[in-house]
């Protein structure tokens, strides 16, 4: 289990560095998904099964889908040209190798005779709920506001101003 922990740590670091250094948003999103799954594996290795499951469900599932929709809303160019770029083997090579490596370590950890985790404490959903809506309620609300602000910003940056959509104050159309 220690090998899976250290390998997942390395995969998370590599994928996160690729997220930061990549200029193509779809490439960055692919690497971010791999990074989130590697962090979930770290939670599983540490015995925090609930936190690992929430990492996969909430971040790799819901928020990544939201990010993909935001990137699609940005309309980065011709759909056919972008599809060809996103479906090229060079786009998927590095994230694919990292995902395959992570899959090998996950399967190895599941099939291993050693089922003991590094930490033996189990965290229940009730304990997480009490912590999130107790002393950390302000942090949870600030994170939700930050995510909402990011979504609104992405929408406003990506939308196209079409003539006739918005009537400016003081223009000739506004006076009629």
From TrEMBL:
InterPro entries documented for this protein: NADH_UbQ/plastoQ_OxRdtase_su6 (IPR001457), Nuo/plastoQ_OxRdtase_6_NuoJ (IPR042106)
Places the protein is found: Cell membrane
MF (Gene Ontology): NADH dehydrogenase (quinone) (non-electrogenic) activity
E.C. numbers: 7.1.1.-
Primary localisation category: membrane
Keywords: Cell membrane, Membrane, NAD, Oxidoreductase, Quinone, Transmembrane, Transmembrane helix
Catalytic activity entry: a quinone + NADH + 5 H(+)(in) = a quinol + NAD(+) + 4 H(+)(out)
Its membrane topology: Multi-pass membrane protein
Gene3D superfamilies membership: NADH-ubiquinone/plastoquinone oxidoreductase chain 6, subunit NuoJ
Transmembrane domains' residue ranges: 28-49, 56-77, 92-112, 133-155
The protein's role, per its UniProt record: NDH-1 shuttles electrons from NADH, via FMN and iron-sulfur (Fe-S) centers, to quinones in the respiratory chain. Couples the redox reaction to proton translocation (for every two electrons transferred, four hydrogen ions are translocated across the cytoplasmic membrane), and thus conserves the redox energy in a proton gradient.
Subunit organization: Composed of 13 different subunits. Subunits NuoA, H, J, K, L, M, N constitute the membrane sector of the complex.
Similarity-based family: Belongs to the complex I subunit 6 family.
Listed name of the protein: NADH-quinone oxidoreductase subunit J
Organism whose genome encodes this protein: Pseudaeromonas sharmana
UniProt lineage: Bacteria, Pseudomonadati, Pseudomonadota, Gammaproteobacteria, Aeromonadales
Gene: nuoJ
């Amino acid at each position: 289990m220690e090998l899976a922990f250290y390998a997942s740590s390395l995969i998370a670091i590599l994928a996160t560095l690729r997220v930061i250094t990549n200029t193509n948003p779809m490439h960055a999103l692919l690497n971010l998904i791999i990074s989130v799954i590697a962090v979930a594996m770290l939670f599983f290795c540490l015995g925090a099964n609930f936190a690992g499951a929430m990492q996969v469900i909430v971040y790799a599932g819901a928020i990544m889908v939201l990010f993909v929709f935001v990137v699609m809303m940005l309309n980065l160019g011709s759909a056919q040209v972008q599809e060809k770029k996103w479906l090229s083997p060079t786009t998927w090579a590095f994230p694919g190798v990292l995902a395959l490596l992570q899959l090998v370590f996950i399967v190895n950890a599941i099939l291993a005779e050693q089922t003991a985790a590094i930490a033996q404490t189990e965290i229940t959903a009730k304990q997480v709920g009490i912590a999130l809506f107790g002393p950390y309620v302000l942090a949870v609300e600030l994170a939700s506001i930050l995510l909402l602000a990011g979504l609104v910003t992405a929408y406003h940056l990506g939308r196209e101003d079409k003539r006739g959509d918005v009537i400016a104050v003081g223009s000739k159309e506004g006076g009629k």
